[in-house]
Amino acid sequence: MANRILVIALALVPVFSFRHNRVGHDHSINHMNKLLDEKLGPVSDTDTSTTYFYDNAVVDHFDGNFVSPGASWSQRFYVDTKFWGGEGYPVFLMIGSDHGQSDPSIALALVPVFSFRHNRVGHDHSINHMNKLLDEKLGPVSDTDTSTTYFYDNAVVDHFDGNFVSPGASWSQRFYVDTKFWGGEGYPVFLMIGGEGPQSAPSSRLLMWSLAEEHSALMISLEHRYYGESQPVPDMSNENMQYLTSEQALEDIAHFVAFINSLQPDVSVSVTTPEITLSSSTAKSKWVAYGGSYPGSLTTWVKLKYPALFAGTVGSSAPVAAEYDFIEYAEVVGTALAYPTIGGSSQCEDIIREGVNSLMFLLNSTTPMGSNPDIPQSLMPCSTMDNDLDLSTYQSEVFGNFQGAVQYNLMASRPWVSDACTAAVSAVSEGGSSLDGLAAATALFYNESLPFEERCIASSFQDDYLAFLDDINFSEKGCNLTCTADRQWIWQSCNEFGYFQTAVSETDTSNPFAAFTALNIDTAGKAVCEGAFDIENYNGPVADARGPAANTHYGARNVQGVNITMPNGSMDPWHALSVINTTDTFYDEKQKTAKTISIVEIDGTAHCRDMYAPGTFESVGVPDTEAILWAHAKISENVAFYLD
What we know:
32% of the residues lie in helices and 15% in strands. The protein is built from 17 helices and 19 strands. It has helices spanning 28-40, 105-110, 126-138, 207-215, 246-262, 294-305, 328-337, 346-364, 388-407, 417-429, 434-443, 452-455, 461-470, 486-497, 521-533, 549-554, 626-643; strands at residues 6-10, 49-58, 72-80, 91-95, 147-156, 170-178, 189-193, 218-222, 272-273, 287-292, 312-316, 323-325, 498-500, 543-544, 547-548, 558-559, 564-569, 592-593, 597-602. The strands form five sheets. A nine-stranded mixed beta sheet has the order 9-5-6-8-7-10-11-17-19, sandwiched between helices.
């Protein structure tokens, strides 16, 4: 294969000359080349390489402010196609070092030997959302009383500030510690990684709790910067939002783990509030990280970036592939509405599709839109609509009801998919139209006894959406699990990931909500980012030549690591952006994983379902299915292996 490679040499930094050990320091390979040239004469094979300058190199890759594009510079590189066999053959890259990079002549000699209803308002972290619903249904659990809340006062605002001369600013990051099951020194530490909402303490409702009891583990939950009461800056102005990135969050995790491992037994430290004391050291403990949804991605990525920190990770429902126009979400919703295992049917999907078509006919039949009295009461907009932005808000609200039913299906609060489909099919069976079926299903999501203004369908882009994003103030301290998260998550979506859930795109017009043509990437993504952060000409998350830069940073579905478990529900819309079975409809051929990646795809289940302890939903009439039992057994087996 060595005679079929493409060879590239890359200079990592602008070619500056600086001093090292008194005399003029030189890159080792270049220095040796010069000596060989003097002794033997220059080699001629460099004539086959071409010198280029990449003029779009980025000065600061960790500038988290997508509102103002960062500076660029020209980075020199060389390409030699002398031996390259073409598509499918490897590329060998010689990475430059501390005094410029030469052409690939030496590379040839050296290298070949090495063979969320996330759409509009009220966004919440998935686990917290479900805990709130369970609390309303069953009452709060008492086990959180065994945990202690702390603030780590030495968290770093900007981990990528390269100026060592002046120490960077610090802030206070909330975390919880529960020693209930901990066996002490040498026993493991289980870390729940927080995400796009306030983070709660470890709970007996979670599988992590059950596994901690089994393995005598210390349980810790760490809140994500900018969410909950972890507020590293005074407010959420555009300028202050630049430190809200996944890269900074990963550094927070690494910094925090190092801090916990530095604690000495029974010695309190002043860098936390209150001062923390552990009975034993965790320095010899193995760590396992857990997370679901965006935190599931962080859990996977932290293992890739810091493989030595964690013995293993369990990243549930992790959308590791960033995508600006997330049309697959609507496609999975359609699949779920037609899936008999969870109470769906092809008839149900067809009724919803035809009902949406009929609804759009009525909406468009009047000026202004939405004033036709024939619109069913449960689908009546709160106000008429004059433009596509308002119409997209209305469409997103109708779509969002079914999103929520699918994403959190068979977990606590109803209606579930089976409820919505039963209502839709019954309405048609009783002589109603498909529009009546859509209206009957939609009515399940609202309390009809409420005043109209409290149960109508939101239809103002400005008042029902942007108004929630314009507020640059954090929730007051003490907000605990009610802290707002909308502006923060939309910033991350605009900046890094996209994830904007549309109903129609160039690649799909077949899902049941495809007639909602106003709910496209221009309204669901572009207009949102421009309106929320007062910018112009937004065209998607920070990107490189291949698309969203996050996919280059982390590999998207190309997960190459060890001891990583990635559970997903086959009816979870977010699984379409994760690592899944090759037999899944939403499998992407670009997916490549190391053999040590454990893919746990769970038939018929929804978002983060595997994260809950065995039997959690039995009290609301939902026993664990065989698929859930299998998934829990597999995850438990993997964790035991990581700790062996």
